[in-house]
Amino acid sequence: MPEAQADVAELTISQFDKALHDRSAFSCGFEPIDKFLKEALTDHIKSGYCTAFMATDEEQKEVIGFYTLSAFAVSPEHIETPKRPRPPPTIPATYIKAVAVHEDWQGKGIGRALMVHALRQAMEISEKVGLMAVILDVLRDEAFDRRFAFYEELGFQPMNDPDNVDRVYLSMNDIRASLGA
Q1: Cβ neighbours around 130 below 10 Å, total
Q2: Residue 118: per-residue pLDDT
Q3: Is the dihedral of CA 106, 112, 117, 119 positive or negative?
Q4: What is the pLDDT of residues 112-141, one digit of tens each?
């Protein structure tokens, strides 16, 4: 998995703070994600459903990208697990509900920088709490093929879940190996 591109050197990624991050002008081109960021994110955080990280340009307040992390569990039939010991009934994972970049900033390496940051966060969490994978759903719209190829390039692979055919995962072992941990 390649590191973030050099043209994002002035990017700041930090945990969401309503007073520090202006979401009002954010538009990634996918209305459900824009609406989630502007109308539901704060309630999701307060309820303990997720944490969120915002990308801004240098010291600016305007959000140019973001992602969320949540706890998750999947059936061992849906991802590759070690043969021994026998896996538990559910496999602990980190779930990325959303990752998005403002339309004006797309194609500049910010999505990759956000994903590297998210994977590093998951890796840190896995040192304290058992986690076997990072999971996300590739959203279906006209950009699905481009989006799916992006996640494949990062090493994500489809899960063996017929009920969630657009769900992909990356094992913590692969994350550690690719991020040099």
Answers
A1: 12
A2: 97
A3: positive
A4: 999 999 999 999 999 999 999 999 999 988
Taking the C-alpha atoms of residue 50 and residue 27, their distance in angstroms, rounded to an integer, is 21
Residue 2 lies inside a defined structural domain of this protein = no
Q: What is the pLDDT of residue 60?
A: 85
Asked if the structure places residue 4 within a domain, the reply is no
The low-confidence residues of the chain, meaning pLDDT below 70, are 1-9, 181
> Domain tally for the chain?
1
If you count them, how many residues does the chain have?
A: 181
* Domain span including residue 61: 9-179
In-domain check, residue 1: no
Which CATH number covers residue 66? 3.40.630.30
- Residue 117 located in a structural domain: yes
